[in-house]
Hints:
It is built from 22 helices and 13 strands. With 665 residues, the chain is α+β, with helices and mostly antiparallel strands. Strands 1, 2, 3, 5, 6 and 9 form a 6-stranded mixed β-sheet that branches. A 3-stranded antiparallel β-sheet has the order 4-8-7, with no helix packed on it. A two-stranded antiparallel ribbon has the order 10-11. The longest helix is centred in the middle third of the chain and has 34 residues, at 334-367. The radius of gyration is 27 Å and the shape is globular.
Amino acid sequence: MTENKLVNPDLANERQNALIDVDEMKSFIGEMLYFNQENYRSAMKYRDLMVKTIKPISEENFYNLDRDEKYQMIFKKSLELWEFVNENKIENQMSIYSIGSVFGLEKILFNLHFTMFRDALNVWGNSEQSAYWQKFLSENAVFGTYVQTELGHGTYLRGLETTANYDKSSQEFVIDSPTLTSIKFWPGGAGKSCNFAIVMAKLIIDEVDHGIHAFVVQLRSLIDHKVVPGIEIGDIGRKFGFDATDNGYVKFDNLRIPRNNMLMQFAEVSSDGQFTRKGSELLMYAAMLLMRGNLPLVGAFYLSISSTISIRYSCVRRQTADSNGVEQQIINYQTQQIRLFPALASTYATLFSSLNLREILIKIQKKSDNFKNISPDELAKLHALSSGLKSLVFSDCLKFAQSNRLCCGGHGYSASSGLSQIIQEADAACTYEGDNVVLLLQTARYLLKCAQKGISPHLEFNDFNDLKKSEIYKKFAYFLEIFHKLYQELSDEVTGKLFKLVKEDGMSPLDAWNSCSFQLTDIARIYIEIFILNSNLWCVYKNRVIENQKALADLMELYILYSVTNNYCGNFLRMSILNPGEVNQMRERMLDLLPKIRQNAVAFVDSFDLLDSNLCSSLGAYDGRVYERLLDFARKSQFNQKEVHDVFHKYLKPFAQRQKLMAKL
Length: 665
């Protein structure tokens, strides 16, 4: 860290006056992130070594570069990361993610290789295939991606149009894009970088459709990187963000691949074309669960960066003099706090609930032998939970990223603030790996089935009985009760309405569903909020450092009060669970909490243990030297490379000469 004598004095005072033990909080969060203290210390060791080994983009004037320069820089650093991971024999995915801090918010170009590509080989491939491909990957410079989304379809797997026709005579699959809308679109790294892919396609044998399956497809030569004949590949062009990522399109033209390139853990095609399903087709969704299950953690990471930048800047920035002529830190203003602190509370709520979901996924993965023996009920519950949490997390992430940007005023609009990149990332995440609204409806479908069966959809937490005896539980029992009441009231209301529309009004089930879809998203949100509250309650309870536990409890209370008064107030009042007076009391309590959280605000964000290379921000660096960094970024602008820009000689000088000539006439 930077020496104190170089730290902005306002930031130094914030750290000195905080009640939180930051080192203990870092350790608490780190142990949950990396499963134990040993893994946490190891990850931090590699992270710090990585930053010394590879120059972070925060020191490379990255946000003043054009797209091609950004792509080349990230490609080079992605390969350096790859070598670093291999040299140090790092296998833990979270460790890989943390040492990627040299990339700031930019994506490692081979991110999908480390996630969906390898997960698919392990989960969807049988033991022989998995062993073969792991050996092949270790012996060759394979960079894999995951190719699912098409021009016409995304998360609706059954609607995918790419085909894999089995040719018995050659024992090959023929991969084809038969329509315009079947062309694969958006896969990360497919445009120019990756040479292999997991391709999701419709398996057809003797004109019989056997559903969507996964195929390993080579995209480019391992020798000269040229595109394999039978494929058209390109970059999809500029996007809102992700400048350095080559999202691609892939069009197949009767490309032939060996029979064994179909991943056959859950379904098999024999040499003579006999199709055999091994278990439920739902098992194909297991690898997607792993990806979606980790996405909320990514959202928590984005939120932590956004809150760190805006809170540190708000302590450094001073505005409007008091009666003594002293300009106040803008973090002292209530209108700033009511925007900053709910975002901070949401960050911790997101982090704790995301970690809980990951723990649940890992336990079920182990218990079910890598999902091979998972029950349909468990799979449905995991799908509902991961879908709903992903939706809520990134909706909040986008909302609060924009709010935090506004809290930083005009300087927040500079690319050097690091905030515009978070907004772009969160914006994209609201639709990739499932549109947020569609995901809520998928969660709601599961909840309706539970209601029809008369079973509770809510997860039982291990050792929750011990928690119920604690003072922490007593503090929040009332809030849990009213959220459960709201869930039940909304559930009863929508199930009753659906029954009436179908049974009494004669409406089709599909039309009835559509007529109730807005209400269905409401019950999905409340279901996920209950999961978030339980997850946070458990994490607050587990923190046994008294001051830290108190501070986390205050933050959790703010999260709940903000949710009740700002997000769900209408439904609480409509269902008569709360009256206007109770809502007003909650609102006043929320405002009363702001000064308490303000004392620990910087300590809370310091506890995320983010390096300046994570933030890539002139406004949020640990030392708070905001204005020096803003000026440095401006001086490094490519526009400033020439004292006189070419437009002077091309346009302005001739214009001035014409004006002079006209004046003489």
